[in-house]
Specification:
With 324 residues, the chain is of the alpha/beta class. Helices cover 35% and strands 18% of the residues. It contains 10 helices and 12 strands. It has helices at residues 13-25, 28-34, 39-53, 69-95, 112-121, 137-142, 204-211, 230-238, 283-295, 305-311; strands at 58-61, 64-67, 100-105, 126-131, 148-152, 160-168, 171-175, 198-199, 226-227, 244-246, 259-263, 270-277. The strands form 4 sheets. It has a 5-stranded mixed sheet with strand order 4-3-5-12-6. Strands 10-7-11 form a 3-stranded antiparallel sheet. A two-stranded antiparallel sheet has the order 1-2. Strand 1 and strand 2 form a beta hairpin. The longest helix has 27 residues, at 69-95.
């Protein structure tokens, strides 16, 4: 080890994380908010990191903040460093044989039956659950923030073990006063000219899938505004500036109160899956997979498209529509 690291390494990973978050936002105010700190404190932490590295990472001007040449080089390496540190911590905990599992899930999917069955079968285990962002399942697994996740395809499945649990219909998300809101169902032809938003910093495969781009006949989906997050997309739709294709969420599972959903005919359903890390030999992960395959393949694991339609005329959550 002494030969591998002849000089002491003085690099604070908390500072590296601050830099990665700031590089993603390119704005000190938004990055500070994401890190739950103040803008002056974040500025001091970035300066400390630059001192540790001996290089300026950011160029600041009245027009904003951009990465310096050194910052551009350091950013991908910093991301790898944080991922490696997270994996090292997770593997060390696993080697210590901690008897615990963290199960992730995304909005609108119920994992309660499988979690309850696992807790009953493994009363001494510590079983945790974690709600994930709609596009965070793969990263959460590979970063060891969760050990299993019930979520929706598509996402890149290399390095993962994926089991399909059931199909789920895709629906049209519109404002309550939209011309199509009162329809029993719609087709892609009905929204041929409707703009559909792009979500920034989203996997291209995931973005294309939910935008239905290209359409079955090969035509590109109509362009829509660029938004930062799912909530921003919902706000645009509520204003009547766009529509979207999505899973059958209702107001209890994250749908904006000014929106409703309409069944979408003539499109393939999405797939709800259980994903774990490939090669994970954890006994608890294997046990949860068995319970998920036994209990999460029926209607209780999802909100049906028809119940989503009924929900549009009521603010009352539909039974069985929420996660854990």
């Amino acid at each position: 080890m002494a030969d591998a690291f002849p000089d002491p390494i003085d690099l604070d990973l908390r500072l590296v994380q601050c830099f990665v978050v700031l590089a993603g936002h390119r704005h000190f105010g938004r990055a500070a908010e994401a890190l739950h700190t103040t803008q002056p404190s974040l500025s001091r932490q970035i300066r400390r990191l630059e001192q540790q590295l001996g290089a300026r990472l950011l160029d600041r001007s009245t027009r904003g903040t951009r990465l310096s040449e050194a910052g551009e080089v350091f950013l991908p390496l910093a991301g790898e460093l944080l991922r490696s540190a997270g994996q090292a911590m997770a593997r060390a905990r696993a080697a210590a044989q901690t008897h615990e599992i963290t199960i992730g899930y995304t909005r609108g999917l119920v994992i309660t039956p499988a979690v309850r069955a696992l807790r009953q079968a493994e009363p001494d285990a510590e079983v945790k659950t974690r709600l994930l962002a709609w596009n965070d399942s793969r990263s959460a697994l590979l970063d060891h923030r969760v050990d299993a996740v019930v979520t929706r395809l598509p996402f890149a499945t290399d390095q993962l073990h994926v089991t399909v649990l059931h199909d789920e219909p895709r629906v049209l998300v519109v404002a309550r006063d939209h011309r199509l809101a009162s329809r029993d169902s719609v087709t892609l032809d009905d929204i041929a000219g409707e703009p559909i938003p792009h979500v920034r910093r989203t996997d291209a495969l995931l973005n294309a899938y939910w935008r239905m781009d290209p359409r079955p006949d090969g035509r590109p989906a109509p362009d829509g505004p660029l938004v930062e997050d799912l909530e921003d997309k919902h706000e645009l739709i509520a204003e009547g500036r766009a529509v979207a294709v999505g899973p059958p969420l209702d107001h209890a599972t994250g749908l904006h109160p000014a929106l409703t959903t309409v069944p979408l005919r003539g499109v393939e359903p999405s797939q709800v899956v259980l994903a774990t890390r490939a090669g994970d030999g954890s006994r608890l992960v294997a046990a949860f997979r068995r319970h998920a395959e036994a209990t999460l393949t029926g209607g209780q694991t999802r909100v049906s498209a028809r119940s989503a339609v009924r929900a549009k005329n009521s603010s009352t959550p539909q039974p069985g529509s929420v996660g854990l």
